[in-house]
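Marked as duplicate of an earlier ticket. Keeping the data here for the record.
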Amino acid sequence: MMRRLRPLRTHRVVLTALVLAMLSTCSPKPGSLTRVIEGGVLRVATTNSPTTCYDGPAGPTGYECDLLRAFAESIGVKLRLVYVANGAQAVVRVASGQVDIGAAGLNVTPAYGAIVRFTRPVQTVRQQLVYRADRGKPADLDHLDGQLAVPAGSSMAERLAQMRIKHPDLIWLEVPDAGANDLISRVVDGELAYTVANSDLIAINQRTSTRLRVAFDLSGTENVAWALAPTTDAKARDSLFAAVQNWLQALPEKELARVRDRHFGKFENDEYQGVVRLVADAEERLPKYRQFFEDAAERYGLDWRALAAVGYQESKWNPDAVSFTGVRGIMMLTLDTAEHMDVTDREDPRQSIEGGARYLAQLLRKMPPGVSDPDRTWMALAAYNQGLGHLEDARVLAQKAGKNPNRWDDVRAALPLLAQERWYVDTRHGYARGGEAVHFVDNVRSYYDLLAWVTGGRSVAPSPAAQAAAVKSASDPQDGPAEGVR
Protein backbone atom coordinates (compact mmCIF):
# COMPACT_ATOMS: atom_id res chain seq x y z
CA MET A 1 0.00 0.00 0.00
CA MET A 2 1.37 3.39 -0.98
CA ARG A 3 1.88 5.82 1.91
CA ARG A 4 1.30 9.51 1.33
CA LEU A 5 4.03 11.87 2.45
CA ARG A 6 3.13 14.93 4.47
CA PRO A 7 3.17 18.45 2.95
CA LEU A 8 6.41 20.39 2.67
CA ARG A 9 7.66 22.05 5.84
CA THR A 10 10.83 24.13 5.83
CA HIS A 11 13.62 23.40 8.25
CA ARG A 12 13.14 26.79 9.95
CA VAL A 13 9.44 26.10 10.53
CA VAL A 14 10.21 22.67 11.96
CA LEU A 15 12.84 24.04 14.33
CA THR A 16 10.43 26.75 15.49
CA ALA A 17 7.79 24.11 16.21
CA LEU A 18 10.42 22.07 18.05
CA VAL A 19 11.34 24.97 20.32
CA LEU A 20 7.68 25.80 21.00
CA ALA A 21 7.02 22.19 21.90
CA MET A 22 9.97 22.34 24.26
CA LEU A 23 8.69 25.49 25.96
CA SER A 24 5.14 24.17 26.24
CA THR A 25 6.19 21.19 28.33
CA CYS A 26 7.20 21.12 31.94
CA SER A 27 10.40 22.84 33.00
CA PRO A 28 13.51 20.74 32.47
CA LYS A 29 14.28 18.56 35.45
CA PRO A 30 17.83 18.62 36.80
CA GLY A 31 20.04 16.09 35.05
CA SER A 32 21.52 15.05 38.35
CA LEU A 33 23.50 11.87 38.60
CA THR A 34 22.30 11.56 42.20
CA ARG A 35 18.65 11.75 41.11
CA VAL A 36 19.20 9.06 38.46
CA ILE A 37 20.97 6.75 40.90
CA GLU A 38 18.38 7.27 43.64
CA GLY A 39 15.58 6.61 41.14
CA GLY A 40 17.36 3.52 39.82
CA VAL A 41 16.45 4.33 36.21
CA LEU A 42 18.21 6.05 33.29
CA ARG A 43 15.57 7.40 30.89
CA VAL A 44 16.65 7.50 27.25
CA ALA A 45 14.78 8.69 24.15
CA THR A 46 15.76 6.62 21.12
CA THR A 47 14.48 5.30 17.80
CA ASN A 48 13.63 1.77 16.68
CA SER A 49 16.54 1.31 14.31
CA PRO A 50 19.48 -1.04 13.74
CA THR A 51 21.97 1.72 14.56
CA THR A 52 20.21 2.76 17.78
CA CYS A 53 17.90 0.34 19.65
CA TYR A 54 15.64 -2.57 18.81
CA ASP A 55 14.21 -5.66 20.51
CA GLY A 56 16.67 -8.55 20.30
CA PRO A 57 16.47 -12.11 21.64
CA ALA A 58 18.18 -11.02 24.86
CA GLY A 59 16.20 -7.79 25.20
CA PRO A 60 16.85 -4.35 23.73
CA THR A 61 20.00 -4.17 21.62
CA GLY A 62 21.56 -2.07 18.86
CA TYR A 63 24.82 -0.16 18.64
CA GLU A 64 23.86 2.81 20.81
CA CYS A 65 21.64 0.65 23.01
CA ASP A 66 24.48 -1.70 23.94
CA LEU A 67 26.62 1.27 24.95
CA LEU A 68 23.78 2.83 26.93
CA ARG A 69 23.15 -0.40 28.82
CA ALA A 70 26.82 -0.69 29.69
CA PHE A 71 26.84 2.90 31.00
CA ALA A 72 23.65 2.32 33.00
CA GLU A 73 25.20 -0.77 34.58
CA SER A 74 28.34 1.19 35.42
CA ILE A 75 26.30 3.55 37.64
CA GLY A 76 24.08 0.77 38.98
CA VAL A 77 20.74 1.66 37.37
CA LYS A 78 18.32 0.13 34.86
CA LEU A 79 17.92 1.40 31.31
CA ARG A 80 14.42 2.61 30.38
CA LEU A 81 13.88 3.29 26.69
CA VAL A 82 11.33 5.75 25.31
CA TYR A 83 10.87 5.16 21.59
CA VAL A 84 10.23 8.18 19.35
CA ALA A 85 9.82 8.54 15.58
CA ASN A 86 13.05 10.40 14.82
CA GLY A 87 16.00 12.33 16.22
CA ALA A 88 14.16 15.65 16.39
CA GLN A 89 11.59 14.15 18.74
CA ALA A 90 14.38 12.74 20.89
CA VAL A 91 15.89 16.23 21.15
CA VAL A 92 12.52 17.62 22.28
CA ARG A 93 12.25 14.96 25.01
CA VAL A 94 15.73 15.81 26.28
CA ALA A 95 15.32 19.58 26.17
CA SER A 96 11.97 19.40 27.99
CA GLY A 97 13.37 17.20 30.76
CA GLN A 98 11.19 14.20 29.93
CA VAL A 99 14.27 11.97 29.55
CA ASP A 100 17.85 12.07 30.76
CA ILE A 101 19.58 11.28 27.46
CA GLY A 102 18.73 11.36 23.77
CA ALA A 103 20.44 8.60 21.77
CA ALA A 104 18.85 8.42 18.34
CA GLY A 105 21.67 8.61 15.81
CA LEU A 106 21.96 12.34 16.49
CA ASN A 107 24.47 14.18 14.34
CA VAL A 108 26.18 17.03 16.17
CA THR A 109 24.89 20.13 14.37
CA PRO A 110 24.58 23.87 15.23
CA ALA A 111 20.77 23.71 15.26
CA TYR A 112 20.65 20.82 17.73
CA GLY A 113 23.58 22.27 19.66
CA ALA A 114 21.54 25.38 20.44
CA ILE A 115 18.94 23.24 22.22
CA VAL A 116 20.85 20.36 23.84
CA ARG A 117 24.34 19.56 25.02
CA PHE A 118 26.29 16.84 23.20
CA THR A 119 28.67 14.28 24.67
CA ARG A 120 31.83 12.93 23.15
CA PRO A 121 31.18 11.17 19.81
CA VAL A 122 29.99 7.56 19.87
CA GLN A 123 30.20 7.18 16.09
CA THR A 124 31.35 9.03 12.97
CA VAL A 125 29.29 9.08 9.78
CA ARG A 126 28.75 10.87 6.49
CA GLN A 127 25.42 12.10 5.22
CA GLN A 128 24.66 10.50 1.85
CA LEU A 129 21.94 10.83 -0.76
CA VAL A 130 20.47 7.48 -1.77
CA TYR A 131 18.32 6.30 -4.66
CA ARG A 132 17.00 3.06 -6.15
CA ALA A 133 19.25 1.45 -8.76
CA ASP A 134 16.67 1.37 -11.55
CA ARG A 135 16.14 5.16 -11.37
CA GLY A 136 19.61 6.09 -12.53
CA LYS A 137 22.27 7.90 -10.55
CA PRO A 138 21.81 11.72 -10.27
CA ALA A 139 24.91 13.76 -11.03
CA ASP A 140 24.28 16.31 -8.26
CA LEU A 141 21.51 18.10 -6.36
CA ASP A 142 20.61 20.14 -9.44
CA HIS A 143 19.73 17.01 -11.40
CA LEU A 144 17.27 15.21 -9.13
CA ASP A 145 14.39 13.59 -11.00
CA GLY A 146 11.75 12.97 -8.36
CA GLN A 147 10.82 13.73 -4.78
CA LEU A 148 13.45 14.14 -2.08
CA ALA A 149 12.28 13.68 1.54
CA VAL A 150 14.00 13.67 4.94
CA PRO A 151 12.79 13.42 8.55
CA ALA A 152 11.42 16.70 9.86
CA GLY A 153 13.79 18.75 11.98
CA SER A 154 16.65 16.35 11.30
CA SER A 155 20.32 17.03 10.74
CA MET A 156 19.65 15.97 7.12
CA ALA A 157 17.13 18.81 6.78
CA GLU A 158 19.65 21.18 8.31
CA ARG A 159 22.28 20.05 5.79
CA LEU A 160 19.91 20.58 2.86
CA ALA A 161 19.07 24.06 4.13
CA GLN A 162 22.77 24.90 4.12
CA MET A 163 23.21 23.54 0.59
CA ARG A 164 20.34 25.60 -0.78
CA ILE A 165 22.76 28.54 -0.89
CA LYS A 166 24.60 26.84 -3.76
CA HIS A 167 21.51 25.09 -5.10
CA PRO A 168 18.70 27.70 -4.91
CA ASP A 169 16.21 25.51 -6.79
CA LEU A 170 16.58 22.62 -4.34
CA ILE A 171 13.25 21.48 -2.89
CA TRP A 172 12.65 18.75 -0.37
CA LEU A 173 9.91 17.40 1.85
CA GLU A 174 10.20 17.14 5.63
CA VAL A 175 8.16 14.27 7.06
CA PRO A 176 7.23 14.86 10.73
CA ASP A 177 6.56 11.31 11.92
CA ALA A 178 9.09 9.32 9.90
CA GLY A 179 12.61 8.21 10.68
CA ALA A 180 15.53 7.85 8.30
CA ASN A 181 15.14 4.07 8.19
CA ASP A 182 11.50 4.42 7.11
CA LEU A 183 12.38 6.79 4.28
CA ILE A 184 15.16 4.47 3.10
CA SER A 185 12.55 1.70 2.89
CA ARG A 186 10.30 3.96 0.82
CA VAL A 187 13.15 4.58 -1.60
CA VAL A 188 13.77 0.85 -1.92
CA ASP A 189 10.05 0.26 -2.53
CA GLY A 190 9.86 2.96 -5.21
CA GLU A 191 7.50 5.20 -3.22
CA LEU A 192 10.15 7.91 -2.92
CA ALA A 193 12.90 8.93 -5.31
CA TYR A 194 15.58 10.10 -2.85
CA THR A 195 16.39 10.53 0.80
CA VAL A 196 19.42 11.52 2.85
CA ALA A 197 20.68 9.36 5.72
CA ASN A 198 23.77 8.57 7.72
CA SER A 199 26.28 6.22 6.11
CA ASP A 200 26.13 3.60 8.89
CA LEU A 201 22.36 3.17 8.52
CA ILE A 202 22.66 3.02 4.74
CA ALA A 203 25.35 0.34 4.93
CA ILE A 204 23.15 -1.87 7.12
CA ASN A 205 20.20 -1.45 4.74
CA GLN A 206 22.38 -2.40 1.78
CA ARG A 207 22.87 -5.82 3.39
CA THR A 208 19.21 -6.62 2.75
CA SER A 209 18.54 -4.59 -0.40
CA THR A 210 20.68 -4.83 -3.50
CA ARG A 211 18.63 -2.03 -5.10
CA LEU A 212 19.73 0.67 -2.67
CA ARG A 213 22.47 2.91 -4.08
CA VAL A 214 24.50 5.84 -2.79
CA ALA A 215 24.55 8.76 -5.24
CA PHE A 216 27.08 10.97 -3.43
CA ASP A 217 28.07 12.35 -0.03
CA LEU A 218 26.40 15.52 1.21
CA SER A 219 28.82 16.01 4.06
CA GLY A 220 32.26 15.18 5.27
CA THR A 221 32.73 13.16 8.45
CA GLU A 222 30.23 14.13 11.14
CA ASN A 223 30.04 13.09 14.78
CA VAL A 224 27.12 11.19 16.27
CA ALA A 225 26.71 11.78 19.99
CA TRP A 226 24.27 11.59 22.88
CA ALA A 227 22.25 14.63 23.89
CA LEU A 228 21.64 15.90 27.41
CA ALA A 229 19.79 18.99 28.61
CA PRO A 230 21.75 22.27 28.49
CA THR A 231 23.56 23.51 31.56
CA THR A 232 21.86 26.02 33.86
CA ASP A 233 22.85 24.85 37.32
CA ALA A 234 26.33 23.37 37.29
CA LYS A 235 25.93 21.52 40.59
CA ALA A 236 22.65 19.89 39.62
CA ARG A 237 23.11 19.34 35.94
CA ASP A 238 26.75 18.70 35.21
CA SER A 239 27.03 15.57 37.32
CA LEU A 240 25.25 13.26 34.88
CA PHE A 241 26.88 14.87 31.86
CA ALA A 242 30.32 14.50 33.48
CA ALA A 243 29.61 10.85 34.33
CA VAL A 244 28.72 10.09 30.72
CA GLN A 245 31.75 11.97 29.41
CA ASN A 246 34.12 10.23 31.80
CA TRP A 247 32.67 6.80 30.98
CA LEU A 248 32.96 7.35 27.22
CA GLN A 249 36.50 8.65 27.59
CA ALA A 250 37.53 5.64 29.68
CA LEU A 251 35.86 3.11 27.35
CA PRO A 252 38.70 1.11 25.75
CA GLU A 253 38.84 1.49 21.99
CA LYS A 254 39.08 -2.28 21.73
CA GLU A 255 35.71 -2.67 23.45
CA LEU A 256 34.14 0.03 21.29
CA ALA A 257 35.51 -1.71 18.19
CA ARG A 258 33.91 -4.98 19.33
CA VAL A 259 30.51 -3.32 19.61
CA ARG A 260 30.91 -1.68 16.20
CA ASP A 261 31.93 -4.97 14.64
CA ARG A 262 28.96 -6.75 16.18
CA HIS A 263 26.48 -4.35 14.62
CA PHE A 264 28.25 -3.08 11.51
CA GLY A 265 30.76 -5.82 10.69
CA LYS A 266 30.37 -7.97 7.59
CA PHE A 267 28.92 -11.47 7.74
CA GLU A 268 31.33 -14.36 7.37
CA ASN A 269 30.91 -15.88 3.93
CA ASP A 270 34.05 -17.96 3.50
CA GLU A 271 32.53 -21.42 3.69
CA TYR A 272 35.79 -23.20 2.92
CA GLN A 273 37.59 -21.62 5.86
CA GLY A 274 34.62 -22.52 8.05
CA VAL A 275 34.84 -26.17 7.04
CA VAL A 276 38.58 -26.32 7.69
CA ARG A 277 38.19 -24.70 11.09
CA LEU A 278 35.33 -26.96 12.20
CA VAL A 279 37.21 -30.12 11.24
CA ALA A 280 40.21 -28.97 13.25
CA ASP A 281 38.07 -27.95 16.25
CA ALA A 282 36.16 -31.25 16.10
CA GLU A 283 39.46 -33.03 16.66
CA GLU A 284 40.92 -30.68 19.27
CA ARG A 285 38.00 -29.17 21.21
CA LEU A 286 34.94 -31.34 20.77
CA PRO A 287 36.26 -34.41 22.65
CA LYS A 288 36.34 -32.34 25.87
CA TYR A 289 32.63 -31.59 25.66
CA ARG A 290 31.11 -34.36 23.53
CA GLN A 291 29.81 -36.34 26.49
CA PHE A 292 28.09 -33.22 27.84
CA PHE A 293 26.36 -32.71 24.48
CA GLU A 294 25.33 -36.38 24.31
CA ASP A 295 23.98 -36.45 27.89
CA ALA A 296 22.00 -33.22 27.53
CA ALA A 297 20.66 -34.21 24.12
CA GLU A 298 19.41 -37.56 25.44
CA ARG A 299 17.83 -35.89 28.44
CA TYR A 300 15.84 -33.44 26.29
CA GLY A 301 15.12 -35.60 23.27
CA LEU A 302 17.56 -33.88 20.89
CA ASP A 303 20.22 -35.00 18.43
CA TRP A 304 23.54 -34.33 20.14
CA ARG A 305 25.15 -33.22 16.88
CA ALA A 306 22.47 -30.56 16.37
CA LEU A 307 23.09 -29.30 19.91
CA ALA A 308 26.84 -29.31 19.31
CA ALA A 309 26.31 -27.42 16.04
CA VAL A 310 24.46 -24.68 17.94
CA GLY A 311 27.31 -24.50 20.45
CA TYR A 312 29.84 -24.24 17.65
CA GLN A 313 27.92 -21.46 15.94
CA GLU A 314 27.61 -19.58 19.21
CA SER A 315 31.10 -19.88 20.65
CA LYS A 316 33.25 -22.24 18.56
CA TRP A 317 33.06 -24.47 21.69
CA ASN A 318 34.85 -21.90 23.81
CA PRO A 319 33.57 -22.03 27.43
CA ASP A 320 35.12 -18.61 28.13
CA ALA A 321 33.39 -16.87 25.22
CA VAL A 322 31.72 -13.59 26.21
CA SER A 323 30.11 -10.77 24.27
CA PHE A 324 29.95 -7.06 25.07
CA THR A 325 26.26 -7.48 25.95
CA GLY A 326 27.00 -10.09 28.59
CA VAL A 327 25.99 -13.36 26.92
CA ARG A 328 28.62 -15.97 27.66
CA GLY A 329 29.71 -19.58 27.67
CA ILE A 330 29.63 -22.36 25.08
CA MET A 331 25.91 -21.82 24.39
CA MET A 332 26.15 -18.01 24.86
CA LEU A 333 23.29 -17.77 27.33
CA THR A 334 21.94 -14.46 28.55
CA LEU A 335 21.77 -13.94 32.30
CA ASP A 336 17.96 -14.13 32.25
CA THR A 337 17.93 -17.32 30.19
CA ALA A 338 20.56 -18.89 32.42
CA GLU A 339 18.53 -18.11 35.55
CA HIS A 340 15.37 -19.46 33.92
CA MET A 341 17.21 -22.66 32.96
CA ASP A 342 18.71 -23.05 36.49
CA VAL A 343 22.24 -22.39 35.24
CA THR A 344 24.33 -20.93 38.08
CA ASP A 345 27.64 -20.72 36.18
CA ARG A 346 27.37 -19.91 32.47
CA GLU A 347 31.08 -20.54 31.96
CA ASP A 348 30.83 -24.10 33.27
CA PRO A 349 30.66 -26.21 30.07
CA ARG A 350 28.30 -28.85 31.47
CA GLN A 351 25.86 -26.27 32.86
CA SER A 352 25.97 -24.14 29.72
CA ILE A 353 25.26 -27.08 27.43
CA GLU A 354 22.52 -28.33 29.77
CA GLY A 355 20.90 -24.88 29.82
CA GLY A 356 21.14 -24.49 26.05
CA ALA A 357 19.59 -27.92 25.51
CA ARG A 358 16.72 -27.20 27.87
CA TYR A 359 16.08 -23.83 26.25
CA LEU A 360 16.09 -25.30 22.73
CA ALA A 361 13.72 -28.05 23.90
CA GLN A 362 11.36 -25.40 25.28
CA LEU A 363 11.40 -23.52 21.99
CA LEU A 364 10.63 -26.73 20.12
CA ARG A 365 7.71 -27.34 22.46
CA LYS A 366 6.41 -23.81 21.87
CA MET A 367 6.28 -24.15 18.11
CA PRO A 368 2.65 -24.18 16.88
CA PRO A 369 1.18 -27.68 16.41
CA GLY A 370 0.92 -27.21 12.65
CA VAL A 371 4.70 -26.94 12.27
CA SER A 372 6.25 -30.36 11.70
CA ASP A 373 9.86 -31.47 11.43
CA PRO A 374 12.27 -30.61 10.01
CA ASP A 375 10.66 -27.13 9.72
CA ARG A 376 9.93 -27.21 13.45
CA THR A 377 13.63 -27.57 14.23
CA TRP A 378 14.73 -24.81 11.86
CA MET A 379 12.14 -22.39 13.28
CA ALA A 380 13.15 -23.23 16.85
CA LEU A 381 16.77 -22.47 15.92
CA ALA A 382 15.70 -19.12 14.44
CA ALA A 383 13.91 -18.36 17.71
CA TYR A 384 17.05 -19.36 19.65
CA ASN A 385 18.88 -16.65 17.72
CA GLN A 386 16.34 -13.81 17.48
CA GLY A 387 13.62 -14.69 19.97
CA LEU A 388 10.22 -16.33 19.67
CA GLY A 389 8.45 -12.99 19.20
CA HIS A 390 10.39 -12.07 16.09
CA LEU A 391 9.87 -15.55 14.66
CA GLU A 392 6.12 -15.10 15.12
CA ASP A 393 6.31 -11.71 13.38
CA ALA A 394 8.01 -13.38 10.41
CA ARG A 395 5.33 -16.07 10.31
CA VAL A 396 2.67 -13.34 10.25
CA LEU A 397 4.43 -11.61 7.35
CA ALA A 398 4.67 -14.91 5.48
CA GLN A 399 0.97 -15.53 5.98
CA LYS A 400 0.06 -12.01 4.80
CA ALA A 401 2.09 -12.64 1.65
CA GLY A 402 0.00 -15.72 0.92
CA LYS A 403 2.75 -18.10 1.97
CA ASN A 404 2.69 -20.97 4.45
CA PRO A 405 3.68 -19.77 7.95
CA ASN A 406 4.32 -23.38 8.98
CA ARG A 407 6.92 -23.91 6.26
CA TRP A 408 10.51 -22.91 7.02
CA ASP A 409 11.40 -21.84 3.48
CA ASP A 410 8.52 -19.32 3.51
CA VAL A 411 9.37 -18.02 6.97
CA ARG A 412 13.05 -17.92 6.00
CA ALA A 413 12.16 -15.54 3.16
CA ALA A 414 10.14 -13.34 5.54
CA LEU A 415 12.70 -13.01 8.33
CA PRO A 416 14.99 -10.50 6.52
CA LEU A 417 11.95 -8.23 6.03
CA LEU A 418 12.02 -7.52 9.77
CA ALA A 419 15.02 -5.27 9.09
CA GLN A 420 12.97 -3.06 6.75
CA GLU A 421 10.80 -0.41 8.37
CA ARG A 422 7.93 -0.72 5.91
CA TRP A 423 7.50 -4.29 7.18
CA TYR A 424 8.47 -4.18 10.84
CA VAL A 425 6.53 -0.98 11.64
CA ASP A 426 3.29 -2.98 11.83
CA THR A 427 4.68 -6.02 13.64
CA ARG A 428 4.26 -6.69 17.34
CA HIS A 429 7.96 -6.79 18.22
CA GLY A 430 9.43 -4.28 15.77
CA TYR A 431 12.86 -4.25 14.14
CA ALA A 432 14.99 -7.39 14.12
CA ARG A 433 18.10 -8.52 12.31
CA GLY A 434 16.11 -11.31 10.75
CA GLY A 435 18.79 -11.98 8.17
CA GLU A 436 21.08 -13.02 11.00
CA ALA A 437 18.55 -15.66 12.11
CA VAL A 438 18.64 -17.06 8.57
CA HIS A 439 22.43 -16.98 8.65
CA PHE A 440 22.41 -18.69 12.07
CA VAL A 441 20.11 -21.52 10.96
CA ASP A 442 21.99 -22.04 7.70
CA ASN A 443 25.28 -22.29 9.58
CA VAL A 444 23.91 -24.69 12.19
CA ARG A 445 22.52 -26.91 9.44
CA SER A 446 25.91 -26.90 7.68
CA TYR A 447 27.78 -27.60 10.92
CA TYR A 448 25.37 -30.45 11.71
CA ASP A 449 26.06 -32.07 8.34
CA LEU A 450 29.80 -31.66 8.85
CA LEU A 451 29.65 -33.12 12.35
CA ALA A 452 27.71 -36.11 11.04
CA TRP A 453 30.50 -36.65 8.53
CA VAL A 454 33.36 -35.99 10.98
CA THR A 455 32.03 -38.04 13.90
CA GLY A 456 30.39 -40.82 11.86
CA GLY A 457 27.91 -43.31 13.25
CA ARG A 458 24.34 -42.73 14.25
CA SER A 459 23.06 -40.07 16.58
CA VAL A 460 22.42 -40.92 20.18
CA ALA A 461 18.71 -41.58 19.83
CA PRO A 462 16.76 -41.15 23.08
CA SER A 463 14.42 -43.92 24.13
CA PRO A 464 10.65 -43.31 24.10
CA ALA A 465 10.75 -42.96 27.88
CA ALA A 466 13.54 -40.39 27.62
CA GLN A 467 11.60 -38.46 25.01
CA ALA A 468 8.55 -38.32 27.27
CA ALA A 469 10.70 -37.22 30.19
CA ALA A 470 12.34 -34.57 27.99
CA VAL A 471 8.98 -33.01 27.17
CA LYS A 472 8.16 -32.81 30.87
CA SER A 473 11.55 -31.48 32.00
CA ALA A 474 11.69 -28.90 29.21
CA SER A 475 8.28 -27.59 30.21
CA ASP A 476 7.92 -24.71 32.61
CA PRO A 477 4.63 -24.12 34.43
CA GLN A 478 5.22 -20.38 34.14
CA ASP A 479 5.43 -20.53 30.36
CA GLY A 480 2.29 -19.58 28.46
CA PRO A 481 1.07 -21.44 25.40
CA ALA A 482 2.92 -20.99 22.13
CA GLU A 483 1.72 -17.99 20.16
CA GLY A 484 -0.04 -18.78 16.91
CA VAL A 485 -0.19 -16.68 13.78
CA ARG A 486 -2.33 -13.64 14.46
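See parent ticket for discussion. The mean pLDDT is 83.
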